[in-house]
Amino acid sequence: MNNNAFTPTEIDTVYRVIAERRDMRHFCGGKVPHDTLMKLLGAAHHAPSVGLMQPWRFIRIQNPQLREAIYDAVQAERIKTANALHEREDEFMRLKVEGVKDCAELIVVALMDQREKHVFGRRTLPQMDLASASCAIQNLWLAARAEGLGMGWVSLFDPEQLMHLLNMPRGSLPIAILCLGPVAEFYPRPMLETEQWATRKDLDELIMHDGWHD
Amino acid sequence: MNNNAFTPTEIDTVYRVIAERRDMRHFCGGKVPHDTLMKLLGAAHHAPSVGLMQPWRFIRIQNPQLREAIYDAVQAERIKTANALHEREDEFMRLKVEGVKDCAELIVVALMDQREKHVFGRRTLPQMDLASASCAIQNLWLAARAEGLGMGWVSLFDPEQLMHLLNMPRGSLPIAILCLGPVAEFYPRPMLETEQWATRKDLDELIMHDGWHD
């Protein structure tokens, strides 16, 4: 029937990589080979985008002082977030929430500038460019997991501060600090589940029929 | 080294499903078996989410009148978008932009209500819940492609109107009308590329080092 059908074994592999991908915060240094990095970014660039906008931009951080400055920015936001969490402040501060210093590769993902030109699929929902870029990051994440590389998406930062550090133009927006690289092992379950920050919902609770119901 | 390493063949399969996934607008009716639909939604639910928030909700549309009303809402927005595109209006109107009537399954994906309680990773970037839900949709998309099912993400709608149609609570937000189901064939390239709406950018153009540069 379909062209290029996937075999049952291949289908299982796709479900497996989806199930075994983790948001990693523990890295063990090392390197990501250049060819692998390009394949991973190529996977990201195969994402769907609203009106074929391709809004994603990747800023690879190689300067150690810049990595240090990004680390400091994340730490500052981590403390502000902890304060905003009130009674869960101490619990939050005990969690490892990023691997900025330990990961092999640090990549900032940003939305392009001049996004206002793109109206297709965004007239009523301008945030669809973020949706597209998030699909790209998920592609990268899955490809990295297949390659045996861990990745974490850090969103603990002040976007204005990161824009300043990276000399980003008005209209662009950093959406992710990606920590990428070799890991000693993948968490068997999401770390925030193991650490009892939150529990996993039953799928049945998330599905409704013909309208919203609680 | 890593637990649960993927073999080279399995790695290729992951890259292949990423490369062969398409945003489909042409469907050929039929059905999605219930078990398959649950596996696909399970794949979505395996997405990462900011602070393990799991903000995604899935509303399966089974009532034919409701599907018709959603179709009408998409058509209304399609015309408004065409008008807003000015000189590209006619070109846009010639594109097939949705498969709402022809797809086997219609699923509205929404962000949950009461999102303001979730501060972890969202203090400065509250839109990270949309990012998480988009990762979930990308998982679903890839799993569907592996299963030989097409999917399209329609964002041509007025969210207020859809919220009214689906009796959605204040604070929730519909982000996608997903068209899912059997297709005669998958587009060999993104349809908007084939139709010359936009061209695919070179990956090299999207990668920068240590800061923004044009």
How would you characterize the overall build of this protein?
2 copies of one chain form a homodimer. Chain A is globular. By secondary structure, chain A is of the alpha+beta class. The N and C termini of chain A lie far apart (40 Å). The first copy, chain A, has one domain: NADH Oxidase. Chain A has a 4-stranded antiparallel β-sheet, sandwiched between helices. The first copy, chain A, contains 7 helices and 5 strands, in the order ααβααβαβαβαβ. In chain A, helix 2 runs antiparallel to helix 5. The mean pLDDT of chain A is 96. At the A-B interface, helix 1, helix 2, strand 1, helix 3 and helix 5 of A face helix 1, helix 2, strand 1, helix 3 and helix 5 of B. Strand 5 of chain A pairs parallel with strand 1 of chain B, so a sheet runs across the interface.
